[in-house]
Each structure stands twice: as structure tokens, then as C-alpha cells.
Amino acid sequence: MLISYKHNFIFIHNYKVAGTSITTALKPFGLKNPPLNYALASKIELIPQSYYINEAIRRIVPSFKSHTKSSEAKKQLPTDFWNEAFKFGFVRNPWSWQVSLYHYMCQNKKHFQYELANNFKNFNEYIHWRVEKEVRLQKSFFIDSDGKVIVDYIGKIENIKDEFFKICGKIGINGKLPHKNKSKHKSYRDYYSDKTSKMVADAFKDDIKMFDYEF
């Protein structure tokens, strides 16, 4: 997640949806871990970097992980900032998303499920595990406990250049989008059988319906 008090935005980082590229583009305009009040936000970069100062700051800075969900961020951030900020994130075709996740898990030795992914015989076995053991929906990044969308804009990675251009205009910056953290693989359609395609359709039906996707 990335936040800017100056440009008044909150970027919700859904994983494997160009989030690293977007964060890289927006990082010069924001603070990853903003303090809880506006006054300190404008001064934090001027404070000398020392252990004692950093420890003091840490006590008043909410701790956000890269993939913090909007519902969690809303609880920790000042209400006035949350209400006024432009809150956005991106989603991806669920079938494509699973292919990208699988290859990222297999290729990135630092991923906490690297060994698990490399123990699967193939992508089909991974899909069986995913839908049976660990279904995670993209919509969970953007809704509250009642299922209500609490962000202002949800873009699609399939139109990322146009979507990112619109977002930059909305928050008043001139950002350039690099291509970072890309997993190497073929077209996602090549990985599916009729059976595994149907399994994803059933397991991720909420995302498919909410974000209007099809295989």
C-alpha cells in the first residue's frame, strides 16, 4: 500500500496486478507509512535518520504491509484523510491471475510458498490445491465487512496504461509506469483444461461477477 498526504491518495496493492510497477511509479509522490497527523507528515523527511528518532516515529506510524486491504487501512488512518483521499487499486482476470500467481510462486525463492509451489507436478495440481485449500478473492482488498466497496476506483490491469493515465490526472501527478516484477509464462489460456477453467469459474465467481470477467 502507498499513501500520499500531499497528493491525497491511497493505493491499495492487490498482489500480482502490476502493483510493484504502480508503487515504483507513485513512490516519489508518497509516504509508504504515513504518520497519524498531517503536521508530522510534512516534516518526517526532514528528521535526521537515527535509531532513536526512527523508534519514536514508529510509535506513531501505523504499520502497513505491502498488501494491506482497504478495510484494514481505514481502521488505522485518520478519518478525515480517509474520507478525502482518492482510494484506488487494480484487479485482473481471475484465470490470468492464477497463472501469474503460480509462476511467481515457482520463480521467486523469497516467496513464502516457493517450496509448496515447486512441489506441485504441474499447473493443474496447483489449481486443485488453490480452489480446495486457499481461495483468496481480489474483491477482499476493496470491500468492508458488509461487502460494500469502500474505494473510489478499481482499475483493470488489462487496460493499465489508460487506467493509470486517468488516475494520474485525478491525483495531479505526471507518473511514468515501468514494468516490474513480471512473471514469465505463456498466454494464460494455454494452461487450462475445460475442467480447471470451470474450477476457477466456480471458486472465483464473486470476483468474476463483480469485475465483469470471462475466460
CATH hierarchy class name: Alpha Beta
Query: Tell me about the biggest sheet?
Result: 4 strands, mixed
Overall geometric form:
globular
How many domains would you count in the coordinates? 1
Remind me, CATH topology? Rossmann fold
Count of helix runs:
11
Specify the CATH architecture: 3-Layer(aba) Sandwich
Query: Mind telling me the C-alpha Rg?
Result: 19 Å
| Euclidean distance between termini CA atoms | 29 Å
Number of strands: 4
Explain this structure.
The chain has a single domain, classed as Rossmann fold (3-Layer(aba) Sandwich), CATH 3.40.50. The chain has helices at 19-26, 38-43, 51-60, 70-76, 79-84, 94-107, 114-119, 123-133, 160-171, 194-203, 205-211, and strands at 2-4, 9-12, 86-91, 153-156. α8 (123-133) runs parallel beside α10. It is globular. Residues 32-36 and 41-60 have low confidence and may be disordered. The protein has a 4-stranded mixed sheet with strand order 1-2-3-4. The longest helix has 14 residues, at 94-107. It is of the alpha/beta class.
Compact summary:
The protein is α/β, with parallel strands linked by helices.
List keywords for this structure.
alpha/beta, 215 residues, Rossmann fold, four-stranded mixed sheet, globular
SSE blueprint and pairings:
Layout lengths: L1 E3 L4 E4 L6 H8 L11 H6 L7 H10 L9 H7 L2 H6 L1 E6 L2 H14 L6 H6 L3 H11 L19 E4 L3 H12 L22 H10 L1 H7 L4
Parallel strand pairs: 2-3, 3-4
Antiparallel strand pairs: 1-2
